[in-house]
């Protein structure tokens, strides 16, 4: 096997993901991804026809995000018809999974140049728009395992781990403060580009729209738990509530403590991102200077009710593949789907919290489902270069009980 090199990474700003309310809500998701593709091409000067494939993650593949969004984005970008493209879905890991597939292609020698990333317009195609729920509405599957919504799983994790509301809010406050510092110091500037209206050329958004730099511990503490009412919803075949179904799988919890709020959970946003990946052969022939190489990639499954605990074992799997330990990693990007996920991963792996999400995360910046993984990789790479560090590990939890991890090394 050869090496997979990261040549560049870019992203849009994250726009508020409410219909008609956010700056990106007027931009079709195909156009968001198309602008990412053209920005990469303009920065690097490659010939689009040299791209072997465009791979894009997207979670809600219905409506405007259906019909192979990636292929439509290639056409919207004005790239040659010969450039192929594929859309994929591994829920919140979709953008990073696209990077994995692209890296596999170039490392194997089957491909030389791949653009991989993802997009999600949560304002135009809200979560759940495909109608599939957690399990595709398969009643036979529900007889074997009844999967609860992620918010219930997050609160169950917090209950089992004994996390307090104050600990969860502290993660959120740190995310907001770190993001505010990163924005003030221009730490995102290298990867960020302004999104324009494709018809008028007018800039519609040039910086992340959702961070709340004035967030306080008192303000976070005043927020009501987000999933209490959801947990009391009756959905079971024998009249069980969602909380009761979760507790049936984890009776030692005794009672679920609903601790996650809108303030310590990820924000709903629009956005797109991508990474340029190249083979050793392409790098040598073109005289390129890669920014990083991918040392290891891993995915893993986990118990589907608790669901969100797989970042730790996925990271351990990637570390084993690279012959490394958690202590060897300079920077960690642990997706802040919920504060409890970050704390559980840190505790399980014994990570120094000061190495985690140093420029904020999805609690402050938002989580555009299909794009987040690629965004986190770009953020990690930029910070490795800024702080003159070498290694970073990016990991996300995944709906239905999965995890993903990518280990990169700066060159």
Automatic annotation (TrEMBL):
* EC numbers: 2.3.1.9
Q: Which UniProt keywords apply?
A: Acyltransferase, Transferase
In terms of superkingdom, the source organism counts as Bacteria
Q: Which CDD domains match?
A: thiolase (cd00751)
Instruction: List residues of the Thiolase N-terminal domain.
Output: 5-234
Presence of keyword Ribosomal protein: no
Q: GO molecular-function annotation terms?
A: acetyl-CoA C-acetyltransferase activity
Thiolase C-terminal domain location, by residue?
Answer: 288-410
Q: Which family does it belong to?
A: Belongs to the thiolase-like superfamily. Thiolase family.
| Protein name (Swiss-Prot/TrEMBL) | Acetyl-CoA C-acetyltransferase
Q: Look up and give the organism this protein is from.
A: Archangium minus
């Amino acid at each position: 096997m050869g090496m997979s090199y990261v040549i560049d990474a870019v992203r849009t700003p994250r726009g508020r993901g409410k219909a008609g309310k956010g700056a990106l809500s007027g931009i079709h998701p195909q156009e968001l991804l198309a602008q990412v593709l053209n920005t990469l091409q303009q920065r690097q000067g490659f010939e689009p026809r040299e791209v072997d494939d465009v791979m894009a993650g997207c979670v809600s593949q219905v409506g405007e995000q259906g019909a192979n969004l990636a292929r439509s984005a290639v056409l919207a970008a004005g790239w040659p018809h010969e450039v192929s493209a594929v859309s994929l879905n591994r829920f919140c890991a979709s953008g990073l999974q696209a990077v994995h597939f692209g890296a596999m292609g170039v490392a194997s020698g089957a491909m030389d140049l791949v653009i991989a990333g993802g997009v999600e317009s949560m304002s135009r195609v809200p979560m759940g728009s495909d109608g599939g729920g957690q399990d595709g509405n398969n009643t036979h599957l529900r007889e074997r395992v009844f999967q609860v919504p992620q918010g219930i799983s997050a609160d169950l994790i917090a209950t089992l781990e004994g996390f307090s509301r104050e600990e969860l809010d502290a993660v959120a406050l740190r995310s907001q403060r770190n993001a505010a510092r990163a924005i003030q110091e221009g730490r995102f500037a290298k990867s960020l580009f302004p999104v324009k209206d494709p018809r008028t050329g007018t800039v519609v958004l040039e910086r992340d729209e959702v961070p709340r730099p004035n967030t306080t511990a008192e303000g976070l503490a005043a927020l009501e738990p987000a999933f209490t009412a959801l947990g009391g919803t009756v959905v079971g075949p024998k009249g069980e509530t969602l909380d009761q179904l979760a507790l049936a799988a984890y009776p030692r919890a005794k009672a679920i403590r609903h601790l996650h709020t809108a303030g310590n959970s990820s924000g709903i946003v629009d956005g797109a991102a991508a990474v340029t990946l190249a083979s050793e052969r392409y790098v040598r022939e073109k005289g390129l200077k890669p920014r990083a190489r991918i040392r290891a990639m891993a995915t893993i499954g986990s118990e589907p009710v608790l669901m969100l605990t797989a970042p730790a074992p996925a990271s351990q799997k990637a570390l084993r593949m690279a012959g490394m330990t958690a202590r060897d990693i300079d920077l960690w990007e642990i997706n802040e789907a919920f504060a409890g996920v970050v704390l559980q991963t840190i505790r399980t792996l014994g990570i120094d919290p000061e190495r985690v999400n140093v420029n904020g995360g999805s609690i402050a910046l938002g989580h555009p489902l299909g794009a987040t993984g690629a965004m986190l990789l770009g953020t990690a790479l930029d910070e490795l270069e800024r702080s003159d560090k070498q290694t970073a590990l990016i990991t996300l939890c995944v709906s239905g009980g999965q995890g993903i991890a990518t280990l990169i090394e700066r060159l």
